[in-house]
Amino acid sequence: MNKSLCLLALLTLLLSGCVQRVEPTGAAGGGAPVNLVLYTWSEATEQAANQELVNQFEKAQPGITVQIQNVPGSQEAMQKLQTMMAAGTAPDVMSIHGAYYFSFAAKGTLADLEPFATKDASFNLADFYPSLVQISRWQGKLYSLPRYTSVYELFYNKSLFDAAGLPYPGTQGHWTWDDYLADARKLTTQGPGGAPGVWGVFIDFWGSRLFPWLWQNNADLLDPSRTHCTLDSPQAVEAITFLRDLRWKYGVAPASISSGHNDGINLFLQGQVGMYMTGPWDVQTLQKKPALKWDVAPLPVKQRPATLLGTENYGISATTKHPQEAWELFKFLLSPESQAFMAQRLERMPSRRSVAEGPYLSAPASYNRKVFVDALSYALAAPNIPEWDQVAHPLQEQMDLIWINSKTPAQGLHDAAEQMNATLAKLRGR
Q: Which residues contact 423 (CB under 8 A, 6 or more apart)?
């Protein structure tokens, strides 16, 4: 039996014993069985792993049954969840995309987890990275915790670097935007008849994929109070100009569209892209093509290192009829054993320090997982606000115009900031 199978077997044994038995209202306590609904937005492989965990939970808690309600796709799932909450049919425990968390918390639809965590001696809140706990708070209260975390880093094709005679990114010490551009130019080649051969980089010119580039140049989307859009700053214009120029000035990045969220990883899989910024969620996809030689490096740096701190938050409904049982399920799904299981099975990046710096790092891996863990020390939270979904549209509209070269970065960012500020003022009654 290989190391991975041994670890999975050990984790299964640990999971079977990590649930603290509760008998407040369930069948084991003499009452009717407690039925909980767990809401997720997973694809098939994660849904199967979640069901495996739920089976372990139910085995240890014979008075509780758990029904998984799954809606694939984050946007569709969050819209459905909003509808359920408005209709008074909220699930007991739910997975919330990090970008939507504040809007749910602000509406009072989530239970405060602090009282549960404080009373439960078996739950170690301090084991979660402090930055992750901080971004899970809304107005001082802890309405969720991340089951997983993630960061954007640079995935690179080792074979293409070898063919170009280039050292791997970041292996020669401090690695800058200028180094990134120089490598991209050397990696870019034409195919037969002038057709595209290899692109040095692929740029996703949309949403959160732009945030690290802004932050690295000391720019931001909102001011510290999160009341005013600052996208028209000189630092923001410089960052977006750099990205736009990769396509239009230097010709090292192909055309891409903001709705084509899989285009970059598909081209990388085909060996047509030298460097691509993505996160641990794409590792399993890459591992399905063993002939592809790749690894992970930190993003290049301008003024400072920065990347996005992403989360998949889990919460408990404020209206659940079974708060203690819901807490037990929540606690089990976020336990060290469950996180180690999901890291091994599906490459999910743990949010607990004991797991991220323990089993996750020590387990055999074909790539440099340490890059992800190290990034947690400088990763930044997205500028989420309850109104983000309503103010993000003008931002993307302007980014699309910049990317197709219909507007200059300065004009597009000015117009985006103006529209976003007008929308914020209207929503907040100013």
A: 387, 390, 391, 394
